Structures are given as C-alpha cells and as structure tokens.
Task: structure prediction
Amino acid sequence: MNRRHLLAIESSCDETASAVIRDDGKILSSIVASQDQLHAEFGGVVPEIASRAHVTRIVPVLSSALDAAGISRTDLAAVAVTSEPGLVGSLLVGLTAAKTLAMCLDIPLVTVNHIEAHVYACGLDEQGPIFPCVGFVVSGGHTSLYDCVSAVDFRLIGGTTDDAAGEAFDKVARILGLPYPGGPSVAAAAESGNPRAFDMPRPMLKNPGLDFSFSGLKTAVLYAARGVPGPEQLSETPVDRVPDLAASFQAAVVDVLVQKARRALKQTRHRRLCVGGGVAANRHLRDQLTAMAQQENIELRIAPLKYCTDNAAMAAIAWEYLRAGRTADLDADVLPGLVRRRSPHATSASPGSS
Ligand code: KG4
Ligand code: ZN
Result:
C-alpha cells in the first residue's frame, strides 16, 4: 500500500473524466470520455443526455484511470471531484461516485471548483508555479477573470453578463451551418476568411471594468449572415460569406478577451496571466495574447492544449486544498451556479454574471 495518489473525477458538463495525480504533482493518467457525438445533432449540450451518459461511463472511466496509472484503490490518499459549477445532473453523477469511493475506502473527499481548476491547468506537467496571477477562464460555460492570490484564494474580478465566449462560438457555428462543437469549426472556417470583411462590435470594451457580454455580437453575426429580419431575410448564409463572417466574429471576440485581460493585469498589478478553458485552444487568441504579453512585459501561461478542454487532471489543485486542510463532508452538495466571490478591489459588479 502506497497512499500517495489522488483520484480525480470531473463530470460537470459533457465529458466524463478521471485522473490519477501523485503527491508530487505528476499526472499518472488522464482519461476523458467525450460526449461530443451524442450532442452534435442538437448543436449544443443536452443536459438530460449528458447526465445519462455520465451514469453509464463513470465506472469504466474510473477503472481506466486507475489501470493506466498502474495503481490500485488501496494506493489512494483521497478522492477529488468537481462539485461546482456545472449542470446539476452531470455534477451529481461525479459527486455520488466520489462520495461512494471516499466512504468505502475511508479516505478524504475533496470538492473542486471547476473554473479554478481550469486556471490551475496552466501549471500542470511541471510548468512551474502559477501564483500569484490573473486567472482567465474562457470556456463554453464561463468567461471569468480572477485575482488569484494562491490555490486557495481566488477572487472573481470579472465575468460575462450573458453568453460565455465558447457559447458564442457554438451559437455562431449554428448560424453559419458549421458543425458542433463550434469553437474548432469557426476557427477552421476563419483560416481562409478576412477578419476585416465585416465590422463587428467589440461589446463592453468601452465600458469600464472587467465584465463581458457576447450575446449582441452573436446577433450582429446573425444579421450580417442573413440580413435584418424582414421579407428579404435569407434562411441560410451564402457559403462564400462563411469564412469572412467566421474570421470577423473571431477577431471581435479575441479583441475583447485580450483587452480585458490587459485591463485585469493593470488593475491587479500582477505580472503573470494564466489562461485556461476550451477557448484557450484557439490559435488566434493564443497569438494575440502572446503579442499583448510581449508589449506589457508580463509572463503568459496558457494551459497545454490537452488540458484546455474539460479533464480531471486539472483537479490536481485538490492536493493544495488537502495541504490547506480543506476537505469536504460526505453530505457535500453540488453548486450548479458560479458563486461570486468578488475581490474587494473589483471595479464592476453586475449581478447574475458568471
Ligand atoms: O472548457 P470546455 O471544455 O467546457 C466548459 O467548461 O465549458 O470548453 C468548451 C468550449 C466550447 O464552447 C468549444 O466550442 C470551445 O470551448 N472551443 C473553442 C476551441 N476549441 C474548443 N473555441 C474557440 N476555438 C477553439 N479552437
Ligand atoms: Zn470547463
């Protein structure tokens, strides 16, 4: 018996994932069972389908993670699980599995905030310390800026008042008739497009503060693609306009994300920016962030591609919680919404943004 290992579980949205992480931070295995195919025909995640798929996949995924790491259940020091935020049914599957293991093996249960874990992904695979920093999560469900003091002290300083950046990519893909998930397909279409072909708005850039709004931009793409509502409106976007629309939309989203990140660095005075979440896989965003980091002379850390989209390895943050004595009770519940713990020096506080 060698109790040096953490078993991590992630099921907050549509990936069933598990990882084994050793106490020195080494990731021994990371298994992700994607549900993309199940949701593709609907153009977005269907919560009921997601939770049912988690139920059938969770045990095989957990077994695969242990097998791939070459350890047994008796080698586990603790079990970590995403408990917030996410889809309630999806979160409950992971939490129930984690509680069962913690109880049967008599080991501690640690609950993890999924968004904070996305930031922590920037330090995985021995990339070096990440705190203190500005943490920036751009995913399908969240566009969140944090003042990250330490692994156990994240202060939310900005969020979206409506759609998340990835959600906007997914919705624009649907408008343009591109396949799900929308981020990679819009990015691929944008490769051959002209980012200046359409004059897209840069929402919230003129507003002070660090909040975002992407639903107006999505509507601007809809009108540019099909015309404003009326008798002349098209039902489908002409194929030859798709690359230019994709490129113009992507340029607008990336512009807003990069300028707000720059603002967050100035506000917090941190010299390091850590970016995670599915949209952090976007090449144009990575290029523009790199250029901004050079101009501002700050350290840029972007999560490795394999840890940008949802995975359980990033729940390695649970080792830091354990060291700080932050374990959960077996009656812990899921928290589907993002709890806003605003920094004392946040400049904007729009209720309901997440
Ligand atoms: O972090 P993630 O796996 O799930 C959430 O926690 O939401 O992010 C998924 C999101 C989807 O909206 C997907 O379209 C977007 O990330 N995404 C991208 C790219 N790859 C994934 N968005 C833009 N460009 C990409 N290359
Ligand atoms: Zn995520």
In short: The beta strands are 5-10, 15-22, 27-34, 76-84, 109-113, 133-138, 143-150, 153-158, 272-276, 299-302.
